[in-house]
Amino acid sequence: MSDASRRPGAGLDTSVPNIARMNNYFLGGKDNFAADRRAAEEVLAIAPEVREMTHEAQAFLGRITRYLVEEGMTQFVVIGSGLPNRRNVHQVAQEIVPDTRVVYVSNDPVVLSHARATLATNPHTGVVEGDVMHPGELLTDPELLRLIDLDLPLAVLILSALQFIPDEDDPHKSVAVLRDAVPVGSHFAIGHVVFDTRPEARGPVVEIFQRVLGRGEDASRRSEQVLRFFDGLDLVDPGLVYLRHWRPDNPLTAQGRDRTWTMGGVARKSTG
């Protein structure tokens, strides 16, 4: 919705940019406000390819969801989910296996409000307030446990949250706690912006997001640092790669120079 077509909810400060709404703007959506658009345009002025990156991330989400369902995953926990879009995890998965259960996790009140309204009539989906940095609380949440059986393999998707969490908060430890808590046969899918091919964009882009988040730490990483999130897991082919190279529907789209710089991978927990 545009500023003119929607009324902000009580307590919502529309003068402060919000990452979920910025991402919505990058995707061409209308669930954003002037402050979100200004911050998003600052990013695009430095790296116009960010718009393409958000679309690649949506396509990657669809491919990994289909892959995971084909691998037998009928339970999904999506951590750090953004605003609902046209092709969400539950829609892709439930087209293949209708009773697939999906829980979306976010600590963003904007996302929580939209997701609960959108998913209210779907009995196989749930929305939980939480984040990757509090795995113990997440794994004992009553709403999550209503839908997810933690004694059975599940898929954990963390596709955008980690790139905003600095090393000072030790996100690698939090992912390891989740890894150790789920049963053998579970899968993890992780996505993360990297600056290997765009080192000159790192400083100015990080500065914008520091301002949006109100934090001073630098959470940016290179590919080898992202690879550590998969410790203790077995990466499936083709490993940790730029998103367009992860099992593309059309191999021709994966050719050529990498103009975008988000990487992702899927891994299986093979041992306890």
Automatic annotation (TrEMBL):
<dbReference type="InterPro" id="IPR029063">
    <property type="entry name" value="SAM-dependent_MTases_sf"/>
</dbReference>
<dbReference type="InterPro" id="IPR006764">
    <property type="entry name" value="SAM_dep_MeTrfase_SAV2177_type"/>
</dbReference>
<keyword id="KW-0489">Methyltransferase</keyword>
<dbReference type="Pfam" id="PF04672">
    <property type="entry name" value="Methyltransf_19"/>
</dbReference>
<dbReference type="GO" id="GO:0008168">
    <property type="term" value="F:methyltransferase activity"/>
</dbReference>
<protein>
    <submittedName>
        <fullName>SAM-dependent methyltransferase</fullName>
        <ecNumber>2.1.1.-</ecNumber>
    </submittedName>
</protein>
<dbReference type="GO" id="GO:0032259">
    <property type="term" value="P:methylation"/>
</dbReference>
<keyword id="KW-0808">Transferase</keyword>
